[in-house]
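Our collaborator T.R. sent over the components below with a one-line note: 'Predict the complex.' Nothing else. No constraints on interfaces, no templates requested, no preferences about which chain binds where. So this is a plain run: every listed entity goes in together, and whatever single assembly comes back becomes the starting point for the next discussion.
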Amino acid sequence: MRISALAAAAGLPVATVKFYLREGLLHAGAATSATQATYDDTHLRRLRLIRALTGPVGLSVQQARTILDLVDEPGDDLYATLGRAVSALPPQTAPAPADAPDPYPHARAALEALGQVYDPRFAAVAQLETALAAAEDAGMPISRDRLIAYGRQLHALAAYDLGHLPDEPRAAVEYTVLGTALYEPVILALRRLAHQDVAARRMS
Amino acid sequence: MRISALAAAAGLPVATVKFYLREGLLHAGAATSATQATYDDTHLRRLRLIRALTGPVGLSVQQARTILDLVDEPGDDLYATLGRAVSALPPQTAPAPADAPDPYPHARAALEALGQVYDPRFAAVAQLETALAAAEDAGMPISRDRLIAYGRQLHALAAYDLGHLPDEPRAAVEYTVLGTALYEPVILALRRLAHQDVAARRMS
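Returned assembly:
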């Protein structure tokens, strides 16, 4: 298809598509003349990814580039690449000072209680620390019992997610990034609606 | 305790505590002289709630007042009050036009598949619609199978939450508001860490 059809299919202005081409975020089309090129479904899929990252996921073009580079070159250690890709998603957390003896005490204790690996380099550890500290600070600390209950349900949910990881490395990075960022609001909305459903059965 | 001790215990400047008193968000202390009053744990607890609502929860003082009013006067229909309180939390969603025949088609279909009540007046329905549409738009629609899997886990999680609802109505509103808003970041961080845990066992 021509660039105008590609832009229309992706729901983007032609100027935006040209910008992504110039920036190297979108691969070039096949030249059909000195001034024209043709585009296919790989371009459309890429534009959908860029649009999701810079739209609902909330990344800047530069932040999206970090993730697109990992999609393009997943390398040999897919586990490390997936971790880096997820760490590039919001919320951005400041890394702990290198000399802090125990930078994330709440998160460390929680992961020990859950029997999960504690690795302070992983961005979600800092995120968990902030969240647990805020709950405690409001006089609503997460009890050990609640932590175990939540942890069990979320581990099952995560096992479902990983059970559907595509085999192809580039697709695996895309799935992990979008499945993390775009499914989070779905999960939060479903939790609130489940509250309503349980409350309706018990209270009304 | 004196106002200075109260402010220190709540981690707030005295001027902020005085502002909340003037605005009626914080109840007056017991007067001990024409210019002094004494405060107790009910004041400290209230300040912790206000601080959580205007801090990590991210509400303006006016938005926090809506929730504080529901805490103060939960009324006779606690189920409706809890729904109103949760609807006052972020993310703010625009109400559907009154004449829209089917404003939330994705959310309606999802809740039907889950066997849950679909009530378009509930704010989390609009939130679910936006989230499901964004996933579809990115080429990653939530499959029926995934929806059922997520729905089952989140229903169990919500049943735990409701199982710990305090009996006293004011405490129930506080618990519902803070347990919704402050535990959401905990849940998202735990999901990301569960991904890492499952992936580490399978891939590395």
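Summary for T.R.: Residues 76-203 of chain A form one domain.
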